[in-house]
Design goal:
Elements: H1 5-17, H2 24-34, H3 38-44, H4 46-56, E1 66-68, E2 77-81, E3 87-91, E4 98-100, H5 102-115, H6 123-136, E5 143-144, H7 151-154, H8 163-170, H9 183-189, E6 195-198, E7 210-215, E8 218-224, H10 243-251, E9 257-260, E10 263-268, H11 282-300, H12 304-315, H13 321-344
Antiparallel strand pairs: 1-4, 2-3, 3-5, 6-7, 7-8, 8-10, 9-10
Helix pairs in contact: 4-13, 5-6, 5-11, 5-13, 6-11, 6-13
Length: about 350
């Protein structure tokens, strides 16, 4: 393992290419994205993050395990429609879901908040909000945006994109051949007379084969899941083939969203929106961060006694553990970003 972000990225991509087919032009785009700003760099280098945590703050990996998001950050939350058509908000990317440490999730979320441009509250306040909320919140379903208590989230949902424009944009991707997909994946898409297109999206998963089927006012994306990054950087996380479905069911996750034969299927629609904390007033930032911590608890608490045990362990850590680790990993991430950006210029 190396702290050199360029070498670390090359090593990880070689490891990934040994396990799944990768899309070279998407990796080139990812490299440009990583050089854009520190937050995007953090989002796209989970492998380097795990290496640096094991070096700088290994204690956050200890203790009882819960269903952990892993790659948790402030842009990993958004809206969706569940199987009953209820519009919800919560954690919307579970690609790195595994049994692991909730402290690691809290740390990554805190660092991402500190790195978000134009966030006008201090790292100390960010850490206090996240930790206090996480310690007390009750797990449950993802937020129903129609609930009275979700007013602060409803107010921040971007204006819905025109449907024709949204689906038209998806059709601009290069034509794709669905015959390369496993039969079970093709059957699960269920769109009559769909046109298939390649799609570039995300940051961390850029490079994974990804395509989208587009019909009339409906779209389904499929992408290769790939191996968990915790298999590249051993952190004691435990994979569980049943965990993904269990968490989605418990939080009333996006519908349809499932894994089939190594591919992930999900719906794309104008209803799927991200709520960002960038440039918000301090009070609004605090409200959203509080909701993010609660959403993390929804995942961590799918099996309540595991969350109870993990909270007991976190209480034994020094009072300033999250702030200390956040400052250390924020500074380190900025340094790695500067090094990467300089090499790309």
């Amino acid at each position: 393992m190396t702290a050199d972000p360029v070498a670390a990225t090359a090593a990880y991509e070689r490891w990934l290419a040994d396990r799944i087919p990768v899309v070279p032009e998407d990796l080139e785009l990812k490299h440009r994205e990583l050089a854009a700003d520190p937050l995007r760099f953090l989002r796209g280098t989970y492998y380097l993050w795990l290496e640096r945590v094991t070096e700088l703050a290994p204690y956050v990996l200890d203790g009882p395990q819960v269903p952990a998001v892993g790659d948790l950050h402030v842009q990993n939350f958004g809206t969706w429609l569940d199987h009953r058509g209820v519009r919800r908000w919560g954690v919307n990317d579970l690609d790195e879901l595994a049994w692991g440490s909730p402290a690691l999730d809290l740390l990554r979320l805190a660092v991402s908040a500190v790195l978000t441009p134009q966030v006008s509250i201090s790292p100390k306040r960010i850490c206090r909000l996240l930790l206090d909320t996480w310690s007390m919140a009750k797990p449950g379903r993802a937020v129903d945006l129609a609930d009275p208590g979700a007013e602060h989230l409803r107010a921040l949902v971007p204006k819905e994109t025109d449907a024709d424009r949204y689906y038209g944009k998806l059709r601009e991707g290069a034509p794709a051949d669905p015959s390369v997909l496993p039969a079970g994946v093709q059957a699960a898409v269920k769109i009559d007379n769909a046109s298939w297109h390649h799609r570039q999206a995300g940051t961390g998963s850029l490079g994974h084969p990804r395509m989208v089927a587009v019909g009339k006012d409906i779209a389904r994306e499929v992408k290769v899941v790939g191996p968990p990054t915790a298999g590249y950087v051993p952190i004691g996380a435990q994979s569980d083939d049943l965990l993904y479905g269990r968490v989605l069911s418990a939080i009333r996750g996006p519908y349809p969203m499932r894994r089939i034969d190594g591919w992930q299927l999900r719906a794309l629609s104008p209803d799927v929106e991200r709520i960002t904390i960038e440039s918000l007033r301090p009070k609004a930032v605090e409200l959203v961060l509080t909701s993010m911590a609660r959403a993390a608890v929804d995942v961590h608490g799918v099996i309540p006694h595991h969350l109870h045990d993990a909270r007991g362990h976190v209480e034994t850590l020094p009072p300033t553990w999250l702030l200390d680790a956040t400052r250390q990993l924020t500074d380190d991430t900025k340094s790695r970003y500067d090094e990467y950006a300089a090499s790309s210029s």
